[in-house]
Amino acid sequence: MPTDAALQTSRAKHAPWTASDMYQHIRWLIDAQAVAIVYQPIRALATGRVVGYEALSRFGGADHGPVEEIFVCARSLGLGLELELAAAAEALCDLPDIPGYLAVNLSPATLLDDNALSLLERAPPERLVIELTEHDAVADYGRLRERLSILRSRGVRIAADDIGAGFAGLRHIAELKPDILKLDRSMIGGIVSGSIHRHLVSAMVAFARDEDSQLVAEGIETHEELAVLGDLGVELGQGYLLGRPLPLDRRSHAPGTGPVGDSANVIRFPPWHSRVTAPIDRSA
């Protein structure tokens, strides 16, 4: 089997990648532990304090499409579970240097595999959040609830991702009662100009409060969105406005400098919040 570098060189003249090529590339990513991880901050909207980070995968080299397409391809080639576990393992290696909690994405099918349970046992459970992705329909919610019960008994929290993007997210809420609800960008993007979006988010705020769950708004990109979310009572958020996904800075033991604010760990708030600047909390 050629090395990944040789494989990519052979495709440098824009030749299409075959299924065999993609299998070799993904197999190499797994075996060479070459999945790169970046971290996006999750902030308290009232203060700007970082409460945790979401670990996101990145694949270098040739242009194979968006990250999610690589995972889709891996699943179709029978490598999905291994690729997810490889990405999670890389992220967990960085956990000692990450302030706050670390959110790791796993599909329900992968979470049901015993190798996933063994991997997660290595992490301090009180600092770990499992974000359930919606790659495939859940075949057996009963088994999934049992697995989540084991993790929760150890102190791991469970997040339902992409709430508002489709029916699956709503069913996750009903079946699994997640500790954290993550509002999809599709709900956030219209809150400034659309009353329906605001009413939906407001309803989710009330629901999360009644269920004793935390609510995280994903994909915050403008100060106007941030202001409306604050007015509606959303407590936590992430998005390019609050910090881009970045690799771990080994010198500072925290994800690197973001685009918002004057330095690596400073965020400026819009007028609705007296422009507070808040450094990252490294003591968490």
Automatic annotation (TrEMBL):
It holds the Pfam family EAL. Residues 19-259 form the EAL domain. CDD domains: EAL. InterPro entries: Cyclic-di-GMP_PDE-like, EAL_dom, EAL_sf. Gene3D superfamilies: EAL domain. GO terms for molecular function: cyclic-guanylate-specific phosphodiesterase activity. It comes from the Bacteria. PANTHER family: CYCLIC DI-GMP PHOSPHODIESTERASE PDEF (PTHR33121), SIGNALING PROTEIN (PTHR33121:SF76). This is EAL domain-containing protein.
